[in-house]
Amino acid sequence: MTNYGLVAEMHGKFRIETPPEPQSLDTAVMVGRVEMMLEELVELMRAHRAGDLAEEADALVDLVVFALGTAHLMGLPWDDVFAEVMRANLAKERGVGKRRNGLDLVKPEGWTPPDVAGVLRRAAR
Predict the structure, then answer these.
(1) Which of 42, 70, 88, 98 fits a disulfide with 114 by CB distance 3.0 to 4.6 angstroms?
(2) How far is CA 25 from CA 19, 28, 45, 75, in A?
(3) pLDDT tens digits, residue range 45-87?
């Protein structure tokens, strides 16, 4: 089962509903979700500063769970959206971009962005 599937299973267990088709969240709900993700980022940095690899890993998993849970609450076809964004990312090249570090990915000539809107339209049918 995918990580997204596991989050969907957790939402089912706790009766957290998902819309029948993709939609944006109410602003208050989205703010709450973002606050939870920010909390996990803070925990990640605290664990990093403490040199606690296990807590770093735990914070990263919690961050991903909140991000995937938010996508699930939005009814996003996550695996399809992820595949489309990764298709575009894999067409990039390693180089120095606007972040000015050697781990950056840059868009080569002819690069095409992900068609997330197309994925969402297909999911809404």
Answers:
(1) 88
(2) 10, 8, 28, 10
(3) 999 999 999 999 999 999 999 999 999 999 999 999 999 999 9
